């Protein structure tokens, strides 16, 4: 974990691409970076079980490009696998367009729009999970009430994740009114 956090802190940019069409550029200049191990031993602490997470909270205006959530990726907000692709166009930290047909794109559009707040479209953080043995297919084995996922709106087949419409931590400069979390397939 420490090595991954060091990498994030030393990097000037994170670039996320995928065969599905994701091409996302994230400036890490001035980003708050951190992570957790996937377990905790002290009261009052938290973690992302079971795999750990390395992440960054980029400075304002740092996230730009296209994020494609492909068929089979996970929308953790609705606790379902995507049946059709959803494309998010992101400009200066904000999802400016949600493209796609079918229930997945419509759920995302209506859920975020219902907040009536531009900040609901803001990107919160970027990062990646560290459990190489994580099972993408395990969500199908549980009732929706029995789990919550770790990745926050992710894509690129376990390469990275990004979180549109997530409450913004970025040095207390922004707070949003909704949360949309998705995870990527391996």
Ordered list of secondary-structure elements with their pairings:
Layout: H1 2-10, E1 13-17, E2 23-27, E3 32-36, E4 53-57, E5 63-69, E6 74-75, E7 80-81, E8 86-91, E9 94-99, H2 103-113, E10 123-129, E11 154-155, E12 160-164, E13 182-183
Antiparallel strand pairs: 1-2, 2-5, 3-4, 4-10, 5-8, 6-7, 6-13, 8-9, 10-12, 11-12
Verbal overview:
It is a single chain. With 186 residues, this protein is mainly β. Helix content is 11%, strand content 32%. A five-stranded antiparallel β-sheet has the order 1-2-5-8-9, covered by helices on one side. The chain has a five-stranded antiparallel β-sheet with strand order 3-4-10-12-11, with helices on one face. The relative contact order is 0.21.
Largest sheet: 5 strands, antiparallel
Count of discrete alpha- or pi-helical segments spanning 4 or more residues: 2
Q: What is the C-alpha radius of gyration, as a whole number of Å?
A: 15 Å
Shape summary:
globular
The low-pLDDT segments are 150-179
Helix content: 10-25%
Total beta strands:
13
State the domain count.
1
Provide the spatial order of strands within the biggest beta sheet. 1-2-5-8-9
Derived structural class? mainly beta
Written as H for each helix and E for each strand, in order along the chain, the element string is HEEEEEEEEEHEEEE
- Tell me what portion of residues adopts beta-strand conformation: 25-35%
End-to-end C-alpha gap = 20 Å
- Please tell me the overall pLDDT: 78
């Amino acid at each position: 974990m420490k090595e991954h956090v060091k990498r994030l802190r030393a990097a000037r940019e994170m670039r996320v691409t995928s065969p599905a069409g994701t091409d996302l550029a994230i400036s890490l200049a001035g980003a708050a970076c951190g992570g957790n191990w996937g377990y905790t031993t002290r009261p009052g602490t938290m973690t992302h079980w079971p795999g750990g997470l390395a992440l960054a909270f980029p400075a304002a205006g740092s996230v730009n490009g296209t994020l494609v959530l492909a068929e089979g990726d996970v929308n953790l907000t609705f606790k379902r696998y995507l049946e059709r692709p959803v494309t998010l166009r992101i400009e200066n930290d904000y999802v400016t367009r949600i493209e796609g047909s079918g229930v997945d794109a419509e759920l995302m559009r209506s859920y975020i729009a219902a907040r009536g707040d531009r900040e609901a479209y803001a990107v919160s953080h970027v990062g990646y999970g560290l459990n190489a043995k994580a099972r993408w297919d395990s969500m199908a084995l549980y009732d929706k009430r029995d789990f919550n996922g770790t990745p926050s709106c992710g894509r690129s087949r376990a390469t990275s994740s990004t979180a549109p419409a997530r409450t913004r931590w970025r040095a207390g400069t922004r707070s949003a009114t909704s949360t949309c979390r998705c995870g990527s397939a391996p």
